[in-house]
Every structure is written in C-alpha cells, then in structure tokens.
Amino acid sequence: LRWGGVVSFFASEHAMRAERVLQRADVPARLVPGPREVSPNCGVAVAFVWEHEPAVAQALRDSKIRFEAIHRYELEDEAQANGSAPAVAEDGDIGKHGDLRRP
Amino acid sequence: MALAASRAVGAVTQDVYLDHAATSWPKPAVVLEAIQDFLENAGGNIGRSGHRRSIASSRAVSLAREQLTDLLGAETPDHLVFTKNATEALNLAICGLAVGRERLVTTSLEHNSVMRPLRELERQGRAVEVVPADGNTGELDLDEWAARLRSGGTCLAVATHASNVTGVLLPVAEMAAIAAESAVPFIVDASQSAGHVPLDLSALGASAVAMPGHKGLLGPTGTGLLYLAPGVEVEPLIRGGTGSQSELEVQPDFAPDKYESGTLNAIGIVGLGAAAEHIRAAGVDEIYASATSLGRRFRDGVAAIAGVTLQGPADPADGVGIASVSIEGVPCATAARLLDDGWRVMTRAGLHCSPAAHRSLGTAPEGTLRISWGMDTTEGEIDIAIEALRAVAERGRNTEPLRTVA
Description:
heterodimer, A: alpha+beta, four-stranded antiparallel sheet, 3 helices, 4 strands, B: alpha/beta, seven-stranded mixed sheet, 12 helices, 14% strand, globular
C-alpha cells in the first residue's frame, strides 16, 4: 500500500471521525502524526491512497466532517518499511484501539 | 425499627436502589468493561500526541461522541460538547446565551443548576421572570409563556424538560416552537429526561439542551453533555489547551475544541458511549414504557396507604420515573433513614436542590421523600418500597409528633 495523499484537520476529533468514515466506506486510510509541512493545526492527519482522492473528498463532504485541506503527499511509512504493525489499524480488524500488542 | 425480617421480596441484604434521579446505579456491565478496556488498551491523552496510545484514546472518545449523537439525534457529533455534568452544561449555555439579553424567562419548576446562574445574572442587572408551571400536571400556560417571550427587550428562555421533584414532563416542544417564532434562544434542561424518554435533539427546536451523563444515560459520574443547535455559538466557560492550533495563543473558534479545553474525562466518556449503545439496543421507548408501568404500580400501591400524600402526575405516562411523597407525622429525612435502615431502600429526602419547585408545590420548606427508579428496577423492588412506606406511615400514625420543649 502506497500512501500518496494526506487530509489535514483543525481538530483531532475530526481526524478520528474521518478515519472511521473512510474505513466504513472500504477506503484504505490510516491516522498518522501530522506532517509539520502539511498542517500545524492538530496532531494527526489521515493518510490515504491518492487514487482514492475523489472517494475521500466525497466521504468527507457526505459526513459533514470539517477538514482543513487534502494534500498530495508522499508519506514514508516507517511501520510498513520495517515490517512492524502500524500505530493504527488500516482496516479496523486489529482491534478497536488499533494494534497495541507489545512486540 | 428492626431490620425488616418481614420484607416481602428478596433478601433483606439486597439493596433496593431508588435514587436514580440523583445518579443511576448500577451501571451496565458494558460501561465497566469499556472503562477497563480503555485504561488497559488505550490510556494516552486524546488529541495531544501522535503515538498509538494517544490515537487509541482519541478514537475511543470520538466513537463515544458518535454513539451519543446516534442515540440523541444531534445533527453531527460536533453539536455535542462534553462537560463534567449537566450543571456545567447549563452554565455554559446560560452564561453564553445571556450575553446581550435583558430578560431571562424560566419556569417555577427549575433546579438550582438553572436558578442559581439566573439569579447571579439578575444580581448583575438582568431581569428574571418566572412563569408558573404545575408540578403535578406539568401544565404551563403557553399563552403566558408566549407573552413573556414577546413582551419587549431581548430575551433568553430556559426550562426543565422534567421536574426533578415530581418527574412531570413540561411541554418543551411547544415551548420551543413559541421561542423559535419569537426569535428567542431556548435552553432545555434534560437532566431527568435524557435516556428516560425519547429525545430527538435535531427535531426538538431548542437552541441548547443540557444533560448529565450519569443519570438516565447510565454513564459514570463526571460526565455531562451540552447540545448546541446548528448556528448556535457561545463563549466558552474556560479556555486552554486543546491539542489543536497550538501555535495560537487564542482559543480555537471551532467545535468541539472551542468548548473542551484541558484533558477530557476520557474514561468517563468512553463509559458513557458504551452506555449509550446499551440504551439504544434496549430502546428508549421500551425504557419509558417500563418506567411508566412501574410508576403505575407505585402509585396504586401508595394510594392505598393512609397518611401518605403523593405528588406528581396522575398518569405516570406524563412523567419520568420519579415520585415524591409526604408521610403524615414523619419528617421526610426520618422516613428516608428508616427506609434505608430497615429495608435498604435508598431514596432522597429534602428539597432536591429545587426550592422553587417545592415552593410551587407547597412542599417547602420540609421537602418530600423522592423515590426514583431506572431501567433495571423491578416490580419486586417497587413492592418493597411500598411495603416499607406502609410500615413507616403506620409508625407515623402511632407516634407522638416530635416537639421541641426547650
């Protein structure tokens, strides 16, 4: 999975809601610590596959989630690169809090 | 009085908790599980960091806000603000919406969580106008309500949905419609109705609705909610860190962060979210029907006891699961103690933080004995309460009244 886009938000509440809405719509999405150059507003952003940008924008509009901007952003995914579990589930099947198992 | 070997139903060692209007007990098992799960598997501070435990906490609180939105019918989760209780929610709404308004109109059945902020604003120069409402029938003269709201000058209206003394429901939908026609913001205190009667916030027509999380909504204490209707914005009660816009030294202007400075009561909120799911699964209609049925049982049982006066609606369907009684010859505080000592029946005596309501009922300054039931209260528990009241009333008839002789 190659993330090519990031949505930034004003409030982390909205990032959490966006992640849930996208996962329910079967759009791969992942909460990531907000890249500084994208937004200083709230600590987290939602990464998605750029090809899904229209679906992401539509889902955010439909659910009336306030977001700051959608960015084209190549995100280095350390978790994927080193084979460890990501901080937060991509598809919600690791558990409702994400994968918090100790390595 | 001996511990009642004669109690009709259940072991005497079994608690009969009939103080749900103060706070509900016990909480559903899912509430305890959600709190334990949160503390073990999340536990970071929400919205403050990007690591997995912070994100896990943020997700859990966000999910709770969604669960409450679904239960209560808010337009989006952004319209629900977490507070520490209904009192804080009411203060946020009242102090916020009173800005620039000269007259504050309310009813005679209000709790001090409404009355005290209003009287403070009165001390600062506003006018407080109280429209009489009948604590037994719930009747409020809607013509007078309309006349008050339209009698000139800027105005704010506040009313309780259900009396915390008698449980009677007020016609808040009609009152909200009149307020909307009069372009007057209207705050509803849903402290005794949320979780007990069907509530559709987006359809109610109020500007703001305050409620505790720990009464009918079955969450832990330390939780409350304020619903702010679309377009309604007020000044926050407190300002501080929100995890957002950290480069700015001024408060964010967007909900929910605008109103939720400082670390939230996340464990309470996730418990409240689980409780909301529990209530939704059970069905608020069913909860209301069950409370009504218990109310009829209580009313019928108490009506047969000499010396006991019952306040509240003749038909319990016109109220929530609350009844207020007075016992001839027995002060209500004594009655509450006897019920607890003898039958482990837990109630609340006195004025219930509602002196205005008791004055309008004619039960001030003594107050009443309030019995309030909840989602899991059984007919057997109501029967125990009736039996205990019968014994206490009998004692009252056969005892010389207490006299101060010196």
